[in-house]
Design brief:
2 helices, 6-stranded antiparallel β-sheet, globular, 145 residues, 37% strand
Length: 145
């Protein structure tokens, strides 16, 4: 069964959450947030995770590219208000890291869920790179709680 057709597991715990304001400019002609902008909300939370957990404090220290995104829309995101975005590392491979995400309403209704694959990348060499021992340790320690 495809992950896109499965309901998110109730047992999945997200330790890392960020509140993101829903902006008027995010609305589409149907009056709810345009589907593409939920990924911007996820990016805000993932960037904060990368700064705070992975220890990459600046844009120049980002050492991955996005290789894949899977997303499932459960409910519409409405204006005005804010959403809570949870992100977590679900798998660490040799050269990639999978992160799951959820976007929830202010009343904790699941709005969006999905997963991204971050491919570690050496921008100087222009090639993929291994997950460093330091990064693996930071992520595993944080996610173990």
């Amino acid at each position: 069964m495809s992950p896109l057709s499965e309901a998110p597991a109730a047992s999945v715990t997200f330790r890392f959450w960020r509140d993101v304001e829903v902006r008027f400019r995010d609305l589409d002609s149907l009056g709810h947030v345009h589907h593409s902008l939920s990924l911007m909300y996820v990016e805000e939370a993932r960037a904060a995770y990368w700064r705070e957990v992975a220890g990459r404090a600046t844009v120049g220290e980002i050492d991955y590219v996005i290789g894949e995104v899977r997303i499932r829309y459960h409910e519409r995101i409405m204006y005005p208000g804010s959403v809570r975005v949870g992100v977590r590392v679900s798998r660490i491979g040799g050269k990639s890291i999978a992160m799951e995400f959820q976007i929830r309403s202010e009343t904790d209704v699941l709005l969006v869920s999905g997963e991204t694959a971050q491919i570690m990348f050496d921008f100087t060499a222009g090639t993929s790179a291994p997950v460093t021992d330091d990064l693996r340790s930071r992520l595993e320690t944080y996610e173990a709680g």
